[in-house]
């Protein structure tokens, strides 16, 4: 009869190692899943924001029908200013003021909901194009590695 001391200890160490490698794999899958979930969320937000500005433009049809001369196209969203007269129910808000206020609100939402989010609106009458970019991989640079969302619509 041969006695082997410590054999069960080696088995426990090997099984612990195999289990830890498996758990590390699960942790990697969890991180990848969370990253993809966040990416899908930001894509959904960009889609919603594009439809939001298109709906605002349709609601302000008088200004939007100026096409290339419209405030929606001539002012960059980050240069738009808040118009207090457009926030009051009984305010005197011209269509141009409303357009600038819409752009100001839209830009604020872009910056709040998307990492390094920005948007542009261009027109080739009668079609408007909304393009939204953001830093999806969170490297503090919006470049070709990051996705963008583009949508075209007519009034």
The count of β-strands is 3
Number of domains: 1
Total number of helices? 4
Mean pLDDT: 90
- Our measurement of the CA-to-CA distance between the termini, rounded to an integer number of angstroms, reads 92 Å
Strand content: 5-15%
Give a short account of the largest sheet: 3 strands, antiparallel
Keywords:
52% helix, 4 helices, rod-shaped, alpha+beta, 3-stranded antiparallel beta sheet
Written account of the structure:
The protein is of the alpha+beta class and 155 residues long. It has one domain. Helices cover 52% and strands 14% of the residues. It is built from four helices and three strands; from the N terminus they run ααααβββ. It has helices at 7-59, 61-64, 71-74, 95-113; strands spanning 118-124, 127-133, 148-154. It has a three-stranded antiparallel sheet with strand order 1-2-3, with helices on one face. α1 (7-59) runs antiparallel to α4 (95-113). The longest helix has 53 residues, at 7-59. It is rod-shaped, with a radius of gyration of 26 Å. 24% of the residues are buried. The model has no long low-confidence stretch (mean pLDDT 90).
SSE topology:
Layout: H1 7-59, H2 61-64, H3 71-74, H4 95-113, E1 118-124, E2 127-133, E3 148-154
Antiparallel strand pairs: 1-2, 2-3
Helix pairs in contact: 1-4
């Amino acid at each position: 009869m041969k006695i082997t001391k410590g054999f069960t200890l080696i088995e426990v160490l090997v099984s612990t190692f195999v289990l830890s490698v498996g758990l590390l794999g699960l942790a990697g899958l969890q991180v990848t899943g969370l990253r993809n979930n966040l990416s899908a969320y930001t894509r959904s937000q960009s889609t919603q924001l594009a439809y939001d500005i298109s709906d605002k433009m349709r609601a302000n049809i008088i200004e939007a029908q100026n096409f290339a001369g419209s405030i929606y196209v001539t002012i960059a969203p980050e240069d738009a200013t808040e118009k207090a007269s457009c926030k009051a129910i009984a305010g005197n808000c011209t269509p141009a003021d409303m357009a600038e206020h819409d752009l100001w609100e839209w830009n604020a939402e872009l910056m709040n909901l998307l990492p390094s989010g920005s948007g542009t609106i261009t027109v080739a009458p009668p079609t408007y194009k909304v393009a939204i970019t953001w830093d999806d991989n969170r490297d503090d640079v919006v470049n070709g590695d990051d996705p963008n969302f583009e949508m075209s619509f007519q009034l």
